[in-house]
Write a structure and sequence with these properties.
single chain, 97 residues, alpha+beta, 2 helices, 4 strands
């Protein structure tokens, strides 16, 4: 996923942000609503880049589900991509596991 980010500076910033999720991930970012309610979102590498992740508390695992730009109203918006993953069952909410 990270390799898809072309700008190496942004790659480093995003990688650092992902690493920072190791410390209290459930207190970072904001919880999402609706179809994405099993996920949280944090900014990384700039104002428009988002990391969508799920925290599995019983195993202390942070699963990065999607990484991309916030492009409201466009098909390639990171939130739209995450919704599509859920609809295609390529990612399952924690409650379904």
């Amino acid at each position: 996923m990270l390799e898809a980010v072309r700008d190496r500076r942004v790659q480093r910033l995003v990688a650092r942000r992902i690493d920072s999720l190791a410390q209290e991930p459930d207190k970072q970012g904001k919880p999402l609503t609706g179809e994405l309610s099993s996920l949280r979102s944090v900014r990384a590498g700039g104002q428009r880049c988002r990391i969508l992740f799920r925290v599995e508390s019983e195993r202390v695992v942070v699963l990065v589900v999607a990484l991309g730009l916030r492009k409201e109203g466009e098909r390639r918006d990171v939130y739209e991509l995450a919704r599509k993953l859920l609809r295609l069952r390529l990612h399952e909410p924690e409650a379904d596991r």
